[in-house]
Every structure is written in C-alpha cells, then in structure tokens.
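seq as requested:
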Amino acid sequence: MKGKKLKDLEESFESGAINKKEYEKKKKEIKNIPEKARKAEEEEVKESKLKSDRTLIIGVILLISAFAAAFSWIILTKEQPKTLDQLHELNLKGELEEEQGYMHNNAYSFVKFDDLWYTQLVSPKGSRFYNIQFRFGPREVEPIEIEGFLDRELFNDATNYYVTFDPTGNDFSHVTLAVADFNQHMTNVFFKAPIAACDKNETFACEGRPVINCDNTDDIVLYIKEANKTRVYYDDNCMVVEGNGFELVKGVDRILYNLYGMMEQ
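struct tokens:
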C-alpha cells in the first residue's frame, strides 16, 4: 500500500503535476502513515489491557464482598446464648472465650452478662439456688489480700449490720455503689438487714443516724473509707475497705468472695 502511493507520487512529480515541495511533503506524509497506525494500535492494546485489569479488580472485589457477606450472615444467624443457664452450660464445656467466662478453682462457673459477672450457688443458710452477680470477677480481685481477723460466728449469727462512711468525703458516688452492692448480697443471700450510719455527724444526711466506727460497737460493721491506697482488712467485728473510685467497689467484691467461701483471705 505504501509502495503504490509512493510510486503514484513519483509519477505525479515527474509529469509535472506537482512541484518538488509538494512532492517532498506528500512523501513524508506517506512514510509517516505506518507510524501513526502503529501508535494507534499500541494505544488500543494499552486500553484493552487497562479494561482487562479493571475487570479483574472488580471481579476480585465482588468475590471478597460475597465471602464477607456470607461470613457475616453465618455469624449473625448463629444462635447466641440468651440466658445465664446457656452461658454456664457453654462455660462448663469450655466453649467460651476467657473474657466471656471461666471456671474459678475448678468449682465455680463465672460468666459475663451485661457487663456483670455471674455465678451460681446455694444460700449459706438454706437450699435456695442463686444466680449472684459481681462487678468484678475473681481474677480481677485476686491481687487484693484481706488482712486481719473476722469473727465468723458473730457474722453468721447477726441479723443486722451497720454500714458506715465519712459523710464529708469527695467520692460519694463510688461509696454509694460499693454500699449498694454489699447490701444487695447481704439482704438477698445472707438475710441480714443493713443499718445506715455515718462515722461522724457533720452533715444533714447523717442527722438522726447512728455514729459508728470500728471502735464503738460490737455489732458487725462495713466501713467504707476514702483513701489514696487500696486496702481491705478485718478488725474482729468490722470489715473495712479503703481506696478511691472503683477500687472501693472492687474491695467490697473481694470481701464478698471471701464471705461466700470462694476465695481465701
């Protein structure tokens, strides 16, 4: 094709139909024709490759999305434990993650439900079966040691107990939470009634309440003290929790585990 065009061009030049300038121009254009065609072909190949790569990427994305959707569907449709009994059953089989449940001392099943730790036991004073709850599991309070001695006979025989604290303290919310948790266990499981007290009569809230500390009564006392350092100890008839923030709540849980016989001092 190129040779014929060049031959026709030469004949036109020799016959005088075109001058030399036109001849050279046309000759150059004819010689450039294959280059332009090749360039167009290369562009076409490049575009075709891009389309192919794009198709491959889209295919991979769709495949991954399909797998993700299928996996999510399996997870969402898999029946989740809905009751404490179901959780305990899975825990006893060892089918829960440690943050969901574990066995304490190979005797007590602890499971986490609604951000609380639950275990099951029989009341110390009867045959009632309880699902009891704690804000902290045994592993969280194990580092806390309980010092001193508690008169267990006095505690077991008591039907009432004092709950006392410093009414001028700065952490009333955590003191209240610790006291409420302790009272719930004492009332519902140990069948003991709390008597609200203060360690001093310096606020309106303490007006008319007994002023109680570990030294002025022989009855059972829970004494919540705000302090910078966490400390839990017994003083004959008195159970003392010192600390601040949730350490007060953790200290109360530590005492409860000991009273239930789940943990040593």
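The domain at 146-265 is CATH 3.30.379 (Chitobiase; domain 2).
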